[in-house]
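Dear colleague,

Following up on Tuesday's group meeting, I ran the structure prediction for the two-component complex that the binding team flagged. I've pasted the input sequences exactly as they went in, so you can double-check that nothing got truncated or mislabelled along the way. The structure tokens for the whole assembly follow below. Feel free to forward this to whoever is handling the docking comparison.

Inputs:
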Amino acid sequence: MANITPYSSPHYFIYLLLLLLPIIIGLWFGKRFRAYDFFATVVILITAFFGGNMTQGISLLCYVLYEMLLVFIFLSYRKKHNNFWVFTMFVLLAIVPLVFVKLDPLLKNQTISLFGFMGISYLTFKSVEIIMEIRDGVIKKITPYEFGRFLLFFPTITSGPIDRFKRFQKDVDKVPSRDEYVELLHSGVNKLMKGLLYKFIIGYFFGTLLLPKVQILAMSYRYQAPLGLSWWVLAYMYVYSMYLFFDFAGYSLFAVAISNFMGIKTPMNFDAPFKAKNIKDFWNRWHKTLSFWFRDFIYMRLMFTIIKHKWIKNRVTIANVGYVALFLIMGFWHGETWYYIVYGIFHAIAMITNDAWLRYKKKHRESIPSNKFTHAFAVFLTFNIVCFSFLIFSGFLNTLWFS
Amino acid sequence: MDEIKTKIVDILKDVTGLDDAGQNADQDLFKDGVLDSMATVEVLVNLQDEFDITVPVSEFDRSQWSTVNKIAQQVQELE
């Protein structure tokens, strides 16, 4: 039996809803059955990770135990001391498994990524969050059970959205009232339907039906246009962008819907990203839980350190250094290929340019028109810049130029 | 408490360069665009120095720090 990727096919939902039924009935009557929750988690983990030769499952278990060990050693250390370098060492140790997994394709050596399994990034985000919050004194106590339950919460295990420990804890420790739960079921069903439409209909249309055709056409015209950039590459850019959004937004809706059925208000990942009026606005709407994670745990902390130690005086320079650091790290996180790194740099430049424009606009407020046409233009421009960045991200330019 | 609030308003004015920043103690500073990430960090650094507290930089729940009144509340708890 092979591993079953959560939400990858419509039938998955039939089995999943059967598995969830006792949880839903329990919550309806105001009860959480801890033992059953545990059982359901085990079932999902087995189907998702222990198919075939079980390597993914074993990696997952080792990974969770390793992160748990780090968190609890750091927690007991933090009760008495608070050294910056010790903290940094724990953060680095927490990301070591992920770094290995990400480096693997580069080294073409499958053996070093002992910890490779689907969703390792998302579990690492959660673990690092916990270590950083223990450092900040926001998390003062956490039990191994709570840690495992947060990390292995199955609706979001493979691809997020990335919840935060304290927020998750608040939901999971209580049972919603009947009214609240009816509301949650209602929003869950809505999201599930919208997710099915996004992923299995619109996403399927763009990704499975259209994309391969456009790709073949773009490849067949590659010698007729400078740098191979025929109009079909432009078509590829838009089709890929639509596919990326509908597929991922659909998946994220499933994860939030299933969480809602379990009485957990997992945060949403997308908020009409193509309506963004500038690139900053875009990142507040696209893969929000990831961009907020990067904002809170990388950008803000880096800014804070730079300002506190007065390493750089100029405000604009500090913000720009922060953007470059954030988006480079995001690029490297996506994978060690030139196009992910370029994608990161491209977004850093877009953010820096956007900030400069906003500063200019603030100074010349009277002379710059602002009406519904300028707004429409801003949305159009942002959309195209974003789609262009997705063309870089897709790796298609790599195929076009170097294959 | 009022002394804390006055200090917070001074910090806000300093950081944002807006004379009316924090005028209304219940104004949502994030929603109204008074504070972006950068300005937020500057405010946090200033609060840390001014009140000699350690602020949580990351899981700083925005809804708990969104107005002058709420910031004052948080500062008092951390002091």
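Residues 60 and 117 of chain A are 6 Å apart (CA to CA).

Cheers,
M.
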